[in-house]
Structure formats: C-alpha cells, structure tokens
Amino acid sequence: MASIIERTRKDGSKSFLAQIIRRASNYQESRTFDKRKTAETWAKNREKEIDKEIAAGRTPKKRSEKRVTLADAIDKYIDESMTEIGKTKAQVLRTIRDEYDISQMPCDRIASHDIVKFVQQLHDRPGLNSASTALNYLSHLSGVFSTARPLWGFALDAQAMKDAQKACSAMGFVSKPDERTRRPTLDELDKLMTYFVRATEANPRTMPMHKVVAFALFSTRRQAEICRITWEDYEPDEQRVLVRKMKNPGEKGGVDTWVELPDPCCAIIDAMPKKKDRIFPYNSDTVSRRFTEACKFLGIEDLHFHDLRHEGTSRLAEIGRTVPQLASATGHKAWKSLERYTHVRQLGDKYECWEWIERVT
C-alpha cells in the first residue's frame, strides 16, 4: 500500500507526498499533491496500474519514460515561470492536473474535442455553477498550451485550444461574467458595521472589520491590496499610499502604483495601532470570509467585499470627481476599465453625515 507523507513548505502550506514502492520488482514512484485526498486517490489508481503491469510480467514504466502528458506541462509551467503566477491561477492549474483525466493524456494526443469535453466536465464540479468560472479555468489552461511547444518542445497544439475556446463560447459552455452593478445600501452597511463592532467589543483581539470595511469603501482598494499596505509606503502629508503589485491588464504580477487616499482614509489609518509593518496586518482570505459570514448572518443577499470598490468609485463620481481624479484614487489606467466600477445613481455625498466615519477614525 502506498504511503502518504505530509510535509510543510517554506510558505507554511502543506503538501502530501504519495509514495509507491514494490520491493519485489525493485520499483518505486512518487508524486506530490496539495491535498491528502487527492494524493490518496492518485496512489490508489496508480497502484492498480502498476500491479497490473507486474502481474502481466512487465516492468512498469516510470513517469520519465512515458510520453509527456499535460500534467507534466502544467508542472513545468508552474515551476519554471519567472513571472509571478497568481495564487488562484496556480490552484486552478493544480486542480486540472490532479482531478481531470485530460491531464493524463499525452500532449500530442490532445485535440480540440478533448478540451471541450474537459470544459463540459467542469460544469459538473461542485461549486462551479457558471460559464464565467469555466472560462477562467479554460483561460488559465490556455497559457500552458501557448507556451509549452516553443519553450519545452511539448507537443501541445495551441490551435486546438483556440478552436476549443471558439466552440465553447459558441455553445455557451464559457462566457464572460455579467457586469456587476451591486452597491450596498446605507442600511446594509449600518447592519454590517454594528455587527463587526460588537464582534470586536466581545473580543478585542479579533480583526476590526468595521475599520477594514470603511477603508475599503472610501479608498476603493481591493482586499488583498489593503492587507499588503505598509506604514513605510504611507505618505500622510501627500495623502497617498504605494500599493504593491496592483493588478493591471497585461502586467503579470501587478505593478507598484501610487494612489490618492480620499477622506477619511488617512484618519482611518492614523487610528490603527502601529505595532506591525503592515497597516492592516490581516489575511485577505480571512477578510473575505468574515464579510461573507456577516452578510449571511444578517440576511444581506448577493453582496461581496469587492462591491465596496464599486461603491467607493461610484461615490467619488457622485461627489463630482472627474475621470482623472477618479483614476488617481482607484489606480485605473483606462476609462474602459474604470467605467465598470462607476454606477452613478445620485448627486452629492450620501456619506456626508454617516455616523460611522467618526467611530472608525
């Protein structure tokens, strides 16, 4: 029976080494996974293949002796990329590698219909219920197809991927997400702020989510960006902050960008304890989870943390900011991108007398 060895990576995450040994045949094989369950499934299936080869009197072929598979290409793509691959993209590619049959196909055998079949299988995945999410999976995989042949000589057919993308789009298997226009109401925000203040009062060591929410709203910053901002990158006299690795179309890994801090952002920052390098020293995933849990508890439907960025951008437009002034705060380089976040519904500042500004500053 295969052994599963748990290991801790340098970044603190866990990995699981599945190791198969057949001493009588002097054969061993191993592979590393992100999840124990995936490692166990692979080991179970691979043991059957190995034992079948041994029972037939054949020596099992090691992975290195086999034809290069899509899984090999994915591994190489993740390991050798000198540009930073986002956490989400890397996880999607590992999921494809570990959980879908197409990853075990030899590169030179994968045709467009195999890719289409994989996309159809995605729609059976628990939690994946939209064509836009399937599009993300396919887009991330297309990067492997476009680079594998020129970089490593792997026989992945980039044209087959293009044909599959066109077919999947035509059949509705993948599509761009609908433009999101959801903005929180003042009543919803009041409920959220009250909920988070009570949580902090009950346990002072818990994350002050009411301050994080207020800063996200008025700064228009993304949750990951908020959690990366350092005191060193904050210039209160200039009312600006350097956002490290800000997302930017066409720039993998993001671009360090100076952005303006509209009122009352500086006051919120100044109210934060200066105990660590980061102003908001929290995990961005925890911020998202806490916000989602609060919305569920309060019965607030279809509101995401990222909607605060839409709200903040729309607010700045409603109080009369010009497009260049908007962009100086949001960090957008083009109006087409900024337009997605601007949903003007009134004139003036609906937060002018909002009681929570004083409570978070």
UniProtKB/TrEMBL annotation:
Superkingdom of source: Bacteria
Domain spans labelled Tyr recombinase: 179-355
UniProt cross-references to InterPro entries, sorted A to Z: DNA_brk_join_enz, Integrase-like_cat_sf, Integrase_catalytic, Integrase_recombinase_N, Tyrosine_recombinase_XerCD
Key words, A-Z: DNA integration, DNA recombination, DNA-binding
Pfam families per the UniProt record, alphabetical: Phage_integrase
Keyword DNA-binding part of the UniProt annotation: yes
Keyword check for DNA-binding: yes
Transmembrane regions listed in the UniProt entry: none
PANTHER family xref list: INTEGRASE_RECOMBINASE HI_1414-RELATED (PTHR30349:SF94), PHAGE INTEGRASE-RELATED (PTHR30349)
Protein name: Site-specific integrase
Organism: Ruegeria spongiae
